[in-house]
Every structure is written in structure tokens, then in C-alpha cells.
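ok so I'm stuck.
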Amino acid sequence: MFDAYVAFQARLRPTAFALITPQRWATYAELDADVDRFAAGLTALGVNRARGVVSIRIGNDYLTHVVLLALARLGVVSSPFDDPSPDLQLVVGEATQPYQLALSPAWIESAFRAEPRPVTPVRCDPNELGRVMLSSGTTRTARRVPRTWRMLEDNTRTCALTYCAGKPGRWVCLTGMDTGLGQAMTLAAWSQGSALIADYTAADLALSLEALRPSIVGLTPIFLRHLLANLPPGLGVQPGLRIVSTGGVLPAAVARETRLRLASEILISYGAAETGSATMADGAWLDDHPGCAGYAVPGVRVEVVDDAGHPAAPGEPGEVRIISDRVSAGYMGDPDATAAAFRDGAFYPGDVGRLSADGMLMVDGRMDDRMDLGGVKFLPDLLEEVALAYPGVRDAAAYAAPDTQGMDTCWLAIVADPDLDRQGLAEHIAARPAMPAHRFAWTESIPRNAMGKIERRRLREETMAALGVHR
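replied:
not stuck anymore, here's the structure
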């Protein structure tokens, strides 16, 4: 279904670039021809809609996109490489599981050499399952989120008309196609005839900005920090570049640094795999509204409710809920999680937020990230933002772990430059009001998922193991 974007652009602007990777720059005509080649080849291997949900575990970014589009042309439901329970998984090399189908290097080479013959797209009911996405899974196993063909198209249109509007050219998404932002930006780019830049790390992109000249870069706050940290000396603000941040609260200090060193325009998109994009904000608003996620996009209603499910007063914290026709029906094969997150015709993403009187959403953190420190509730994002503002702190994560008496205490994991003034950091945090007592954990890296969200449960378990605490 969404392969039609590429097929259309291949006829309208065949020589325009469609997909740019470090290994290959492919035009729309070249990409569409490869999609036909692989659609025919996969059909010969017996891959069709009757095989169920097909996961792609290939490793090569260009080939992954080709296979994804080929599956769509065949009406086959696809899912990310780390889908925990696909019906079929395409892998390169040797199959090691009964549900895997191996695509040998020789078969792949033969498919690329085959004469491209137009493959008639399989027509599907727009309300049927089109793709399975995974929830971000910050504290537990990621859940499978069903998205219909219509939902995919609606979210593509929302992306194209909101945070990507008015920016033709080359689009980069550092989170990858298997994330909500990556999927939306990929399909929106092709729907607009723009080029997708894929398979670049934040460090690689920082060194390639002047050569690639992207018009949009989509990423998460931690990837934005990595991008800023790797910018070449002397590189100024890039003319016409827009930064789109999603997948977590963007610290105001990071937004300010971005405007000074990289791009004058920053947009914030808030949403989830279960909903698509829900709100949008101008990054400059963070100076006056910390945690700002913006206003609901057309077709979406965002509310903040108290513990009884009643709307919270303006400015009062509560649980965020999202109401939209684009909300998924629930999680596949997980009725308990569905009942917990999908209630009263709304989706509850598990965030703590506040609404201003005019409907601006501010997100303070995750419900399940709140630390209970001797009866005092505290959101780790507040401590992290203070730590990240100190020179020499590359990354930070606050979390709770029990001491030998079984009482949760606050820990702050820090990734630092070698010359960081540790005492200065401690004094910097202590000078800020309402910061909890905490212990430092100095580390080389902080565990994060594909969207860059901190895996706090893992940090908690690692700390308990180091302290010899068992629960």
C-alpha cells in the first residue's frame, strides 16, 4: 500500500533521489525497480499475505527498505527486526529458527540482477492490519502494536502536514524505520518526493551535514545531544535546517544550544507507537514552559486527568490521555496490558503532565519512573536536566534502587568527560531547590532502547547486583 508513494514518484520524478545511505544513493526509478525485483523474488519463495506477520532482520539499510516496500506491494504485514513473535522472519545468511526464512547472499545478488517486471500491487482493505509496531518498552518487554493501512496513511499525512511541512529536500531520521518517528518520516518523505537519508549515526551525520545538506533531521533528545557533541569546530548554524525532536522531554538548555550551534528551528513532536503524533510545539517555548509538548494536532484530543479519571485543573499534574481515531485498538496478544492502557475510549501513554488554560501540554515524566523516596514522590527527569546542564556531563540517568535495609534511594548515573569536576557537579546539583539526596554511579554508557529512552529497570537491577541486594 505505502509502496505506492515510491511507485508514483518513480513516474513523476524518476531521477530524483529517494534513498541515500553511506553505501548507495538510489533514485526513485532505481528504488521502485528493486522493489519490483524483490516482490517477484519473495513471491517465488512463497511469501504472501497468508504467511501472517513478517519480520525483517537483514542489517543492510538499503535492502531493508527495499524488502519492506516489496512486502507492502504484496499486501504482506511487516514488523520490526526485534518483533518477539512474528509468524515469519526474513534473515540474511542462515536460518537458525523454524520460523525464519533465509535469504542467501547468492539469492540477493540474483534478485538485484533480475530484469525488473512490474508487480501488480495486492489490494487490501484499508482497515486491515498493515504493520506491527513495537511500543518503546522502557521498563519491560516491548508490546506489539497493530496499525492498519489506513492508520499508516493517516499518520503519514499528519507528519507531512505538521512537523515536516514546507521542507522538501533531504530528510534524516536517526531513530530508524522501526520506530514511530522513523516510519512516519520515511513514508512522508516518499509521499512528498523528498529523499530519505538513512543508516547514519549521530556522529557520522555531524561530520556529513555540509555534504548531505539535509532540510530536516528527526531524532530523540539524547541523539540530539550526541549530534551537538560531534559537530566539527567552526560549523555554524545550518541554513534552512529544521530539527524535529520526539521520544522524551527535551531540556531547554539543549534546545538553546541547538539554536545557537545547529539550527534556528526546532519542533517537538509528542506521541506514541499506539497513537502516532499527538501534539506539536516550538522548541523556543521551552524557555518559558519546561517540558512543553505543545498543542494537539488536528484530529487528536489530549487531556490530563486525576486519579479518579476527572479532568485536572489547568496547571495541575495528572495522567495524560490521548483520544483519536488513530489510536490502536490495543496490544496484540496482551489483554491485561490492553485493559490497563486503553480505557474509556482513550490511550494512556503512562506520562505525568499538565495542561495550560489554553490547552498547551507539558510533560513532566513517566508515571512508572516516579521514585518513591521514603514516601516522597520524585520524577527523575528533573534531576537529570540539572545534571546535564553542568559542563562535562555527557549523559545522565536518575533511578531508584534499594539499600541494604530495603528502602529505595536515589541514584544518578553519569557519563562524563575525563576532566569533569565531580565536586563541582555535586555542588551544582545541591544548589538547586528540591533536589533529592542521591548517590553517584559513574559509568561508560547508559542503557537506552531504540528511541533513546533510559532503561531504568536495568540500571536498578545492575545496581542491586553490585551492592549484593536481593529482593
